[in-house]
Structure formats: C-alpha cells, structure tokens
Amino acid sequence: MLALYLSMLEDDGDKAIFTEIYEQYERKIYAVAMHITSSAPKAEDAVHDTMIKVIKHFDDAKKLFRKSCDEFDPWIVTITKNTALDILRKEGRTTEMAEDWDMPVPDNVHPESEFRALVGEIRGMPEKYRRVLELRLVLEWSFDEIGRELDIAENTARTRFQRGRIMLRERLEAMGYNDKGRAL
Question: From CA 5, how far away is CA 7, in angstroms rounded?
C-alpha cells in the first residue's frame, strides 16, 4: 500500500518524509479507526482515506511533522477519527455507536457474558484512570503523548496508568478472575 501512496508524490524528499509518517503512524491510526468502526475492513478504509488526505494536504502535514509530534500527532488522529466517523455516517450509523462499542470476543474467552462483564468493569472505572488505560493500551500512546492529550504531567500519566491497572486487577479478582501470573 505504501508504494501506491508514494506514487502520488513526485519529490524524493517528500516520499522519504511520507514513508516516515506512514511507518510511525499507520498502526496508531488503525487502532483509532478500529476503535471507532469495530470493523477491520472499515478501519482499513479509514486508514487509507486518512493517508490520501495527508497526501492532499502534504505541505501542511510536512510542516507539522517537521516542527514537532506535539502538533502532528493530534492532527493525524483527528483526521482519522473524522474519517472513521464519516464512514459510519455513510452507512447510517451514528456517532453514538462508538460510545457503545464492544470488542469482539477473543477465542480464548469462553462465555460471552464473562467478556461483557470485563468490558463493563473497564467502562465503570473512574474516568481519569479509564482514559489513561485506553490511550496506553488501545491506542499505544506514550506517556508523554497521554500527558499532552490530557493536559497532565508525564509522571502523572504514568501514575494514573499504574493505579488504573491495579484498580482493574482488583476489580477482576473481586469478580473471581485470576491473571495466573500474566501481566494485566
């Protein structure tokens, strides 16, 4: 897919910058799109459309990317979110669908009710911990990025992540789950 995007650019310097952007952000924006659409094909479409938009506005993208990730990261994530929501709107689903999103049940989890209980526990966590866990575990953001997004210090983001993880583990143990030595 990268070759297709590169064929849309003429300058070798632009191709190198776009390649760097693609390699650095493709996984992250896929996770964002997947979270919103809950469909791999739709998430792939959102990533593709996002990359096309980056190319269409490449002069702006290049300036932001060269300047700092502090500005580029939110820019590309916002484009991805809007693109994924546009895909859902085209098929008649509203933005509320993302709020009620449930991950597909993994193969190793037997009863669907147990998985739904787990998702309910995560959703029931205090916002400041739940949000940090989502950004870190689902979107794979760094603590620095989380701090900037939530307007908190990087160390505060780390602390909230650790406390949220402990809180989630305690909630799961209270429900009868045991992590059997696996990191939670």
Answer: 5
Is-contact 55 7, C-beta < 8 A? no
- In which element (H, E) is residue 14 found? helix 12-37
Distance (Å, whole) CA 95 – CA 37: 10
pLDDT tens profile 89-98: 887 654 343 4
**Do 76 and 29 touch, CB atoms closer than 8 A?**
yes
Q: Given the structure tokens 């390649």, which residue do they identify?
A: 19
Which residue, chain included where needed, has tokens 């992590």? Answer: 179
DSSP-assigned states of every residue in 118-157? HHHHHHTS-HHHHHHHIIIIIS---HHHHHHHHTS-HHHH
> Does the pTM of the predicted model rise above 0.70?
no
Pseudo-torsion of CA 93, 94, 96, 99, nearest 10°? 50
Tokens of 44: 């792939």
Give residues with Cβ within 8 angstroms of 71, minimum separation 6: 64
109 has a pLDDT exceeding 50? no
